[in-house]
Structure formats: structure tokens, C-alpha cells
Amino acid sequence: MSNSSSMSQFLLLALADRRELQLLHFWLFLAISLAALLANGLILSAVACDHHLHTPMYFFLLNLSLTDLGCICTTVPKAMHNSLWDTTTISYMGCAAQLFFFAFFISTEFSLLTIMCYDRYVAICKPLHYGTLLGSRACAHMAAAAWATGFLTTLLHTANTFSLPLCQGNALGQFFCEIPHILKLSCSHSGYLRELGLIVFSACLIFGGFVFFVFSYVQIFRAVLRIPSQQGRHKAFSTCLPHLAVVSLFISTLFFAHLKPPSISSPSLDLIVSLMYSVVSPTLNPLIYSLRNQELKDALTKTDNWVFLAVCKYPLSCNMLSFRNS
Fold first, then answer.
1. What is the pTM of this model?
2. Which of 231, 226, 227, 275 is nearest to 253 (CA)?
3. Which of 56, 98, 105, 261 has the fewest CB neighbours in a 10 Å radius?
4. How many Cα atoms occupy the beta-carbon half-sphere of 270 within 13 Å?
5. Could you report the per-residue pLDDT of 232-284, keeping only the tens digit for each?
6. SS3 of 10, please?
7. Residue 168: CB partners within 8 Å, gap ≥ 6?
8. Are 123 and 219 in contact (CB under 8 A)?
């Protein structure tokens, strides 16, 4: 396969060689995907149905849950299919689509996390201006900008990556299609430099967002520590710590995956890190946000009760749910 025009498929990284382990991976991926769908689906339902959560913070959380669902639905189904049917192939167009959607949801998630950091900064450091700076129109515009920015940057990366001639085989060292692993197969020096320029530009935007995170949270913690009442400090920390935990998990795993020194790189370590930011992180985000958030817990309880009342039209389902809630 001398170039991309004659390449019909790629070979993904096999998660295991033994059939028993492949089936185990299938069931693990199935459990993780169902947990992610359930957790993020509950977040979406709670925010959409409870009018108490119709605030900027929960509006952006709703968008974040959509990106988490997108990440899971982009990478996990193909991994489950390959594990179940003992194959590692993915078509050329399938790889392009998977790369595009995963990069789209990841870049949009980073933009949304930056906006959510701004939301917490304004809420705690400039509370008197919160309604002005984060009105419904402003929130809609910021969310739309996050999705549009993710779409445009991902479109540029995907178009440039798949326009490169590929002459280093078709084996990817990853269980899903990702830009750095496809670039390793390229034999075009000019195209590689062009894509490298796009990556450097995106890295500068990410670094700018990271600096904004650090600056904002320094100001936030200074403002929180000046709050006289312990209850007020606790409430402020409760709204900030989940976001800080999600940002830390997201950035640390993503940075470590692509910036770690080659001396500590190994296939098993690379696989674990990629699983962290592509599968584990989107699954844990709803749990992190609901642990210390009483408003969200109350809304999720109401959502669970609505589901209970709806399903209880059918006696067998009602008995099963009653047993679960007992």
C-alpha cells in the first residue's frame, strides 16, 4: 500500500491475543458504555426537566454531557466489535469518520471546560455582574462558539491528515483512529509540516486555556478564602471542585499521552492512558459532578421518581423497580 488513495483499511491495535481476554474486553467495554450512557443520560434529563437547573452552570454541564456521550459512542462500539469478532480492521472512510468525530468532541469538550471555568470565575469573583455577563443569550453564543470552533479546527486537521500520502504501512498503534498515529504512516515532508503547524496552533490554544484555568482558579480560591462564613466557603468549593477535578483528569491524561518522553513509552502504558481520556474520563465526569452537588442529586432523584412512575404502568417493571429502590 504505497499511498492513501490505494489504502482501503487500517489495522487497529489489538487489545489482547487470547480469545478469553478479547471477550472479557468486550464485556468490560459494554459495561462502561452502558454506565456512561446511563450517567450522562440522567444528567441530560435532570438538567432539561428541572427548572431549578436552568442556570448557566448546568446549561454548560448539559453540553459537556453531550460531548462525553459523543466520545464514548465514537470509540467504544468499534472496539467492542473488534473484540467480539476477533478482528482489528477498520475501513479507510470509517477511520476518517472516527478520527473526525472523536477529535471534534474532544476539542469541543476542552472549549466547554474553559467556558465553565469562566462561569465559576464570574459567579464567585464578580457575582454582581453574573446576570449581565452570563445571560441566556451570552451562554447560547458561547456554547455555539465552542461547538463551531471544535468543528472547524477538527475539519482542518482531518482534511489535512487524510490528504497526506501514506507509505509506512497501515498498522496504527492505537485501538482507535487518532491523528498522531496516522501521521506516523505519512511519507510527505511538506504535508507533515503543514499538519505539524496546525497541531502547534491547536497546542497554543490549549496552552492558553491552561493558563486561563490556572489564573481563574487562583482568583477563585483567593475569593473563596475571603468568604467569612464556613457554610459559604463550603458551598463555593462544592461548585468549583467538581469542575477542577474534571479539568485535571482531562488535561493530565491528554498531555501525558502526547507529551510524555519516549523513554517511558510502551504499548501497554500508551493503551492505558488512551483509555483514560477516551473512555474512562467521559464515564466518570457525571459521577464527579454529582458527588458534591446537592441540587443535582435532588434533580436526579426527581428524574428517577418520574421514570419509576412512568414504568409502573406495567406491573412486572414496577415490582422490579420497587425491589431496586427498597
1. 0.84
2. 275
3. 261
4. 21
5. 788 877 888 888 888 888 888 877 776 766 667 677 777 788 888 888 888 88
6. strand
7. 184, 185, 186, 187
8. no
Cα(167)–Cα(12) distance, integer angstroms:
17
Q: How far apart are CA 232 and CA 26, in angstroms?
A: 46
- Return d(Cα 147, Cα 191) in angstroms, integer: 27
Q: In what helix (H) or strand (E) does residue 160 lie, and over which residues does it extend?
A: helix 136-161
d(CA 269, CA 260): 11
* Cell, residue 297: 442529586
Q: pLDDT, tens digit, for every residue of 54-104? A: 889 889 999 999 999 999 999 999 988 888 888 888 888 999 999 999 999
Instruction: Taking each helix axis as running N to C, give the angle between helix 294-311 and helix 281-291, from 0 to 180 degrees, rounded to the nearest 10.
Output: 110
Q: Could you identify the residue written with the cell 480560591?
A: 221
Give the closest residue to 61 by CA, choosing from 299, 226, 253. 299
Q: SS3 breakdown of the chain: % helix, strand, coil, rounded to 5?
A: 80, 5, 15
Rounded Cα–Cα distance for residues 307 and 324 (Å): 13
Side chain identity at 168, as an amino acid letter?
Q
In this structure, what DSSP letter does residue 277 have?
Answer: I
CB 223 within 8 A of CB 240: no
Rg (CA), the chain: 22
